[in-house]
Each structure stands twice: as structure tokens, then as C-alpha cells.
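for the writeup, i need someone to sanity check this before i put it in the appendix. the sequnce is what the collaborator sent (i think, or maybe the updated version? ugh). structure was predicted straight from it, no edits. if anything looks off just tell me and ill rerun, i have time this weekend
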Amino acid sequence: MSIEDVVIARRIAAQEAGEQVVPDSYQGVTKQRVRYVLTVIDRATDNMVDVVYSLLCDELSWYTRAARQELRFCDGASVAHIGTHVGILQRERNIKLDREGRDYWLKPLWEVGAVLKVYLDSSSAFSPGHPVAKSSNSAYSLSDDFKAILQAPEVEWRALAETWMQADVQRERLALQAAQAQETAATIETPHSRLIRLSRDVYAPRFLVGYEVVYVDDGDGDRITDAETETLAAAGLELTIDDAMPDVLLLNRETNHLWVIEAVTSDGEVDIHKKQSLEAFAVRNGKVGVGFTTTYLTWKKTAERQSALKNLANDTYLWIQEDPSRNMCIKQ
């Protein structure tokens, strides 16, 4: 059974027994207190209130191996866990929050440091950051200092929240969180991260002379940082959450031509839909055109994917890291 099915069954059982589905408070914090604090920091949408309340949940983790270590939901919950808690338990419906909406109900919270990105590592502990892109082990928790505001006495919480949101305090907090996440990332290089790095550092210098990298998507969640936004803007580009995010985006400033590299270890080839989407992106940003390359680590992986899918778009390129001297053009 999926986690949603299990939680629906649990909710129905509680309802039939006349029991409360969700308690009035978690860790001494009511949902009303959550709303008050989020109002002070200008984050008080219904979705964000419910998300923060879910991250106070102190029952055993919904990650099986984390639960074996007696870790709790609040120590780290995935987007699916949070969406299920909000939609199925708190709102007593049979549908979780839409994952694609996380940029609206999670991102504003991690941007101010109220919510932390954490990762369930091989030791079944939660480490800072999201070092593995699109991993089911990527999770979220409340920061300790934000939780302290939620749990503060009635006469103290407002002043604490106002101080917490001061610009200099916020910058220091976010810098510390970023440094902690970087420590985790430095210990892990996934196959996807490795292929992105090789596509950027080996393929691009050999076959894309004159192009410079303006964006690399090797993360999860907050897919365009402020620094990346500035770099893109300097190149006359704007990526939005509605665009097909490339793994590597390059620009030839002399010709005003873009190039996209998609590094594939599980999925994400340059198919016709992605090609058309990024061609529209190039037009919207005033570029003369865009080229495309799909990269794989091995011939074996290429064959596994393409023998079944045959989804590489016409007039795009294919590069295989174990056969790096060839840049193959797809003609159908």
C-alpha cells in the first residue's frame, strides 16, 4: 500500500472510532500559534500554516528505516509525507497537496530559514541539505530557532519573531544553513551529479567552443538561487518554474545562441516536448536559437533507455561519457 492509502485508512479508522484525527497541538504548539507567528513573518497562507503544523508532528517518522531509529516525523518529512499529512489528515480529504505546488507552500518557508532541507543518509540519520537531486530521501524539518519562536511564552513570541526576520539576522542564519548543507553535499556525488559535472567539464569544452555555462541544475527544491538568477539576468535570460529546467544551460555571447545539455541517469532526455519548450524559451528571451545534447554515462545505459523509448528528438546530439570522442547527431 502507498503511504496515502495507509494514512487514509488510519484517518477513517479514527473517524469511525469517534477519535480526533489530528491533535489540537504538537509539541505544545497549536495551529493558531503557527498562524500568528507566520502572520508576523508574512507567510500566513493556509497551505503554509498547515505545512508548518505538519512539521511539528512528533509521531514516529514515515520513513521506515528512520522510524527504526526512533526518529520522528518532525525530524524529516518528504514532500509526499507533508502533502499527505496536510491533505489527508489535517483537511480530512482523500488527496494530498500537489507536489508541484511546493514552490508556493515550501519554498517561501525555506527562503527565510524557517524550514530546513534535510537528507536521510545511509546511516538513517538526517543531514543538512539536499545533496541528491530528486531523491526520495530529500526531506524537510523546522529550524530549531524557528521552532523556539513557536514554542515561546505568549508574552515573548512576537518580539522573537520580529527580531528573527531582521535582514542581518536572516542573512547570517541562511549563510550558516547553506554552509551546513554544503558539508553534506561535499561527501556525496551521485551518478547524476557526476554526469552533469562531466558534461560541463569534458563535453562542453570539447564540442561547444565559445559557449559558457550560465546555469547548472544539480539540486532539488529551490532550483534557481538568487546568484543563479543574477547570472542568468546578466546573460539576458529568465528561467521560471514553468520552464523545462535544463541540467546545463550554455550561451555563446558572440552568436547569441543557447545550448542545452540533459544528463540522463534515470530519465529526462531531450525529447520533442522538451525541445519545443526550450525553443520557446529561447525565443522568449530574444536568442537566435538553441541546440541540444543528451548525455549518458555508458553505452549500456543508452541502450537500456533508447531500445525501448527511442525518444531523442531529431537534430539533437548524443554524447556518451565512456566514448567521449564522439558527438553523435540524431537523424530520424
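The chain has two domains: 3-182, 191-329. Residues 191-329 form a domain with the Trna Endonuclease; Chain: A, domain 1 fold (CATH 3.40.1350.80).
thx in advance!!
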